[in-house]
Structures are given as C-alpha cells and as structure tokens.
Specification:
Length: 339
C-alpha cells in the first residue's frame, strides 16, 4: 500500500488551562494525522476538547491555556522538513505568518470574527493584503471571483455592505471567503454550521466540500453531529474527555463502530437516510467536569459495558485494522470481547 502523504501530524498533544489554583487537562495526549487534500472530522460532545485541540494547532488558546506536551508538525508541500507549530510562541512572527495564510480557521460565530464597522469587502481585502504582495485592483478581482465561487448573489453589491446586512448563512459564507482568500493548505472549521438551520447548514457543507475539491485544501472539521460527519468526512476522530477514543476512515467508523461511546453517539444523532420510525437514544449521564481526576476509563460512569477493571485501568489504543484504532479495555488482549 502506498505511503500516505500527511500535511499535519499531531502527536501526544497535551493542552492545559490554569483556573485559579487548579490545572484543567483539556487535551490529554491526542494523536492524529491529516492526509493532504482530505477532510478529517473531529467529533464529540461539547467540552470534549475538540476545539481546544484545533486552537492548540494555531496557538490560539486563551491566555490561561498552554501546550503542556506533545507536538504539532506542519508539512508544507515541497519543504524538506516540517515546521513544528507547537514550538512557536503564540504571538511569534512565525505563527502569525501561518495563521490565515497557510492554515485558516472558520469559527462557529461569524460575529466573533467579523468587524461590524467595516464592509465585508474591506475585511476580505485586509486578509489578502496582509499575506500577499499584490495590487488592490488584483486583490479585488480575486475577491470577486471567490464571492462568485461561493455563490454569493450580486457580489459587487455585497462587497460594499456591512456584516449586519447579511443573514446568518451569508455571514458564514463570508467567513469561508476570508478563510479561503489566501488559498490555505489547511482549513480548520470549528462547528461552522451549528447555529444555522438545516438547509443552510447543508449549503455551507457543500461549499466547504467544493472548496476542498477545487483547491486541494486539507480540512479539519469540528462537529458534535455524526450526521455532519457522514456528509463530509474522509476520516474521523471521536473525542471524549480530552482523548481520542476511536479513529479511522469514515467507512470504518460508520460500518464497524467499536467504541461504546462512538456507538452511543451514532444512536443519539439523526443520520441522513436513517429509518424515520427509529427512535433516537440519548447517551446516559453527563460529561464529567473537566477537572475530574480519573483512575481508569473516563467513559466508565456512562458505559453500559463497564466492568470493575474499567474504573481502575486506563485503556490504551488497540488497532482493529489498518487505520482503525480504538481506546477501550474490551479490545485489549486478555479482556472480554465487546460483542
Ligand atoms: Fe466502556 Fe470499559 Fe471500554 Fe471504557 S474501557 S469504554 S468503560 S468498556
């Protein structure tokens, strides 16, 4: 089998936050690779550490957050060695040159990024001129082309309008435009469709897929919704309490889910094409507080398969097949089988 071409390698990443005298372990030894030109979805309930994982990649953590261990390596095409993003400080020139240009991000709430007092055209232009030495005339032509590609009607009118003149879905399209204008290698989308209604959500997913295919962009897509994963992902990483509990290709995880949490997530979320008569389950219990100290599997309190060992031993990754791994005692040698 040909060796995969990875654009990003995250290895044993640990991210912590200082909250008063406590240390909260938000990301707890997360490892994954992003294949060039593919879409990786990181999925899990809110508070599982998925947003903090991607914020760590770009050193966008809140002031009280820091990378406590592990590495993030970015493999720019043609470069002979990776850039170790985790070694850059949050305001360094190196990371600022990468943010927006090589790796761009779309956030859940467009208003946290869009400036209400500037026209959207000016905001897209600023991003482009910040990273590229081109004339304003050339820049405007590129923006118009992108607005057209993003199916924004009457782009010449929209260019001079302010964010409040756009609907939620249109604002999110502008966020995609700001993120894509420099043609980044990697697009990180942090729950970009959560606040939108289902039809608009589907349109934004289509646009991201279209941008990825036309520009060869690699995408990390954060979501809590397995339906969205089924729509858009090539690869999936399922997160729970700061750890990846299962990862594989979308086919492996959807046709052969192994971890009890993945199975519960799949039963609790409507997936396109699913039998309408089937009732959705809810996952028992709630996500533990982020500062909880565990002596075994973090999911044990909510897991219907839990045994005594689960409360007293940390599971390690078990390989199910090439590319598909699961972190659960049920699959470790000598433990009982999940079925
Ligand atoms: Fe459930 Fe035990 Fe597996 Fe954790 S290790 S997911 S508690 S069976």
């Amino acid at each position: 089998m040909a060796e995969k071409d990875y654009i990003l390698k995250v290895d044993d990443l640990k991210t912590e936050f200082k909250v008063g005298k406590r240390v909260v372990h938000a990301v707890n030894g997360v490892s994954f690779n992003v294949e060039r030109g593919k879409i990786l979805c990181i999925v899990g309930e809110s508070g599982c550490g998925k947003s903090q994982t991607v914020h760590s990649i770009l050193q966008l953590l809140a002031e009280n957050g820091y990378i406590a261990g592990g590495s993030v390596e970015y493999f720019k095409k043609g470069a002979n060695k990776p850039q170790v993003l985790s070694s850059y400080s949050r305001n360094s020139k190196k990371i600022r040159a990468i943010r927006g240009k090589e790796i761009a991000m779309i956030f859940q709430d467009p208003m946290s990024t869009l400036n209400p007092v500037y026209t959207v055209g000016r905001q897209i232009m600023e991003m482009l001129l910040k990273h590229e030495r081109i004339s304003k005339k050339e820049a405007k032509a590129r923006i118009m082309q992108l607005l057209n590609d993003l199916e924004i009607p009457t782009p010449e009118v929209r260019y001079d309008q302010y964010p409040h003149e756009f609907s939620g879905g249109m604002k999110q399209r502008i966020m995609v435009a700001i993120a894509m204008i420099c043609n980044p290698d990697i697009l990180i989308a942090d729950e970009p469709t959560t606040a939108l209604d289902v039809t608009i959500q589907a349109q934004i997913l289509d646009l991201i897929r279209k941008m990825q295919q036309e520009h060869g962009t690699s995408v990390i897509f954060i979501t809590h919704n397995m339906g969205v994963v089924a729509e858009i992902a090539d690869d999936v990483a399922v997160m729970y309490m700061g750890r990846i509990v299962e990862q594989g290709t979308v086919k492996q995880v959807f046709t052969n889910p192994q971890h009890p949490y993945t199975k519960a997530l799949m039963r609790s979320v409507p997936v396109m094409g699913m039998d309408k008569a089937r009732a959705l389950d809810t996952i028992e219990g709630t996500t533990p507080d982020a500062s909880t100290v565990f002596h075994g599997c973090e999911f044990a309190d909510r897991c219907t398969y839990a045994t005594e060992a689960c409360f007293n031993r940390f599971p390690i990754d078990t390989i199910i097949e090439d590319g598909h791994r699961v972190r659960c005692l049920l699959f470790e040698e000598g433990e009982q089988n999940a079925e």
